[in-house]
Amino acid sequence: MADLKAIILQMSIEDKLCQLTQCCGEVFIGDGSVATGPKARSGLNDEMLNKIGSVLNFANCDDAIKVQKEHMENDPNKIPMVFMMDVIHGFRTIYPIPLAMGCSFDTELMKECCQMASREAVAGGIHATFGPMVDYSRDARWGRVMESCGEDVLLNSRMGAAQVEGFQGEDLKDKKSIAACVKHFAGYGGAEAGLDYTGVELSEHTLREFYLPAYKACIDAGVSLLMPSFNVLNGVPSTANKWLMQDILKKEWDYKGVVISDWAAMSELVDHGVAKDENEAARLAFANEVDIEMCVTAIYVNHIGKMIEEGVFTEEQLDRMVLRVLELKEKLGLFEDPYRGASADAEKREFLSEKNREIARRAAEESAVLLKNDGVLPLSKNIKKIALIGPFADNNAIKGFWSCNGRDEETVTIKQGIEKLVPNAEITVVKGCTNDFGDKDTSGFKAAIKAAKKSDIVVLCLGEKQDQSGEGNSRTTLNLPGVQSELAKEIAKVNKNTVAVTFSGRPLTLGELHESVPAILHIWFPGTEGGNAIANLLFGDANPCGKIAMTFPKNVGQCPIYYNHRSTGRMKDPELDGQHIMYMTNYIDSGNLPQYSFGHGLSYSNFVYEDLKLSSDSLTADGEIKVSVTVHNDSDVAGKEVVMLYMRDLVASTARPIQQLLDFKKVCFEAGERKNVEFTVREPQLRFYNPENKHVSEPGEFLISTGYADHLIHTKKFILE
Ligand code: GLC
Prior knowledge:
Layout: H1 4-9, H2 13-19, E1 21-24, E2 33-34, E3 37-38, H3 39-42, H4 46-49, E4 54-56, H5 61-74, E5 82-85, H6 98-104, H7 107-123, E6 128-129, H8 153-168, E7 181-185, H9 204-211, H10 213-220, E8 225-228, E9 232-233, E10 236-237, H11 242-252, E11 258-259, H12 268-272, H13 278-287, E12 293-294, H14 299-309, H15 315-331, H16 344-350, H17 354-367, E13 369-373, E14 385-389, H18 414-421, E15 426-430, H19 445-453, E16 457-463, H20 484-494, E17 498-503, H21 511-516, E18 519-522, H22 530-538, E19 607-614, E20 618-619, E21 624-633, E22 639-649, E23 660-669, E24 674-682, E25 688-689, E26 695-696, E27 700-708, E28 711-720
Parallel strand pairs: 1-4, 1-12, 4-5, 5-6, 7-8, 8-11, 14-15, 14-16, 16-17, 17-18, 20-28
Antiparallel strand pairs: 2-3, 9-10, 13-18, 19-21, 21-24, 22-23, 22-27, 25-26, 27-28
Residues 86, 130, 183, 262-263, 471 line the site of alpha-D-glucopyranose.
């Protein structure tokens, strides 16, 4: 065990400030130029670089080992650097984007994927990831919805905690684990109009009720780092927001881990107009105890030393911040082994291993959502001629944004997956059109129609590109880019056996496609094993079980649209949706209901929900109600079903959502099997934030149902006494 306080005692103020500074890996590799400009721009001289505390991004373990070795020779304090990277949904073997993983409703699978990513990251020389991202978001226009696990508080919280446990394991000294970093604290998903980096205005009530719980769940799961968000939250950027970072994070939640800024977020306080210059920006961030500057211009090194000399800050505070960083390194075992298991052999053993590919394939199968199926799926393996039509027919760019060191050339395309599964089929590939925004070119339709006419089956492979979602990639529309919907319509006219596989990093408006084709399988961005998973799902070797974790709107004008909304004073009967009624809550040019509701997802099995029973119709503060949902797999196909419980608090001191996910379980069923799926409901699950922002439950009547959002069934009532 390193004597961390003794180490700090020997460090100068500059040493300590360098320890709180993170540089890009490129600063140490090659000509020293970085993504944000030459090394010189970082404002760090060689002596300072010898004392840097952490590094962002290395391409391979050789670079990481080389840089750490040189560092340990040159750092006068012999403090190993910690290497961090965005291992968001895989390191080299890429599994589905987190929004897809949310649709699996499978926390164990989520954990398994993160454990796989950690093993590969350790081999590749990475010690910490900037994940999980748990930014609650209700607006599909925002490109970063792909990084979270959707619009439900419980699902996002459970999936966030599962990622922390998966990445970090039982002991961070275990060289199969990496440190996790929950981000972006807080409210980043509330970006105005879904436009990235815009301001966020959220009441304390709404923050506490919807936007904060998932961060807290990750902190309760033991996350090692936290990253404040770029955005202004209620007038103050998170990086400088004392209410958020001190009152909530440190005082109320007692968070004791490391806080690391987002990329350049400190210097961007100047751009936000809350700091007149970088000196002021440094002061605001340091006052908020943002421990590490993910740096572009090293403003801590350049400005904080003088402030300590002038007594603006104490060296004791600086030591406290440095100690948190050293404690992270100690937890990671870096003082004992600065290389922490990184090696070319480990890379060869881990990267893209059959085991890792199997995990990624299974995750892609479990997170796909069968949105529509008029019986045309699953396909028969005896078919002779298949046409694959659309921009994704033979396209390996299906890993999604934030795919770390994943490589397109290692990714299985739909064509490759189907060739492998049904080798005797004659496959014709026609792109037909692009998925470029605004492309009106239909010249490719002719060849596509010709191929469709001569084939038994057509698989339309459509969607938005993987770089049309993700950071900085907000949209003002949610349709299939280009003329893909038109292509689908023309193809479906000439071959009724046409199914669509759709790719996206966000919910899309698929109403036109829904009207054109008899089946739609939404695959999100499935990752390295995408093509194999899609083939297995299309031909029935895998049975779709995903449920959408984020509402699919009918049109972008409905955004933000989400299932757990409140009533209004003039709610219209959903049965009348689409009929405009004056002075009621409705649009004059669209219905209120989405295309596909939260929790929607079909299967090749046929799950019949026969009943919901309560052990009692009243609940005391220290009691519990046993809930039993009887589900029958009335089919000859084994499958998995996400059984969900929803609640409604009928009357409370703040208006409560008309429906709210209370619990969920993913259950396996054999063909024909009937099961009673048991849940336990206790008073803490019924708590909410009252007008005084106290987390309370209030006596009264509650409804409890199963089914899925907007399609609740077997509703029963109980009383909280
Ligand atoms: C980016 C993202 C953040 C990421 C960081 C490092 O701008 O906002 O999520 O972890 O920079 O890549």
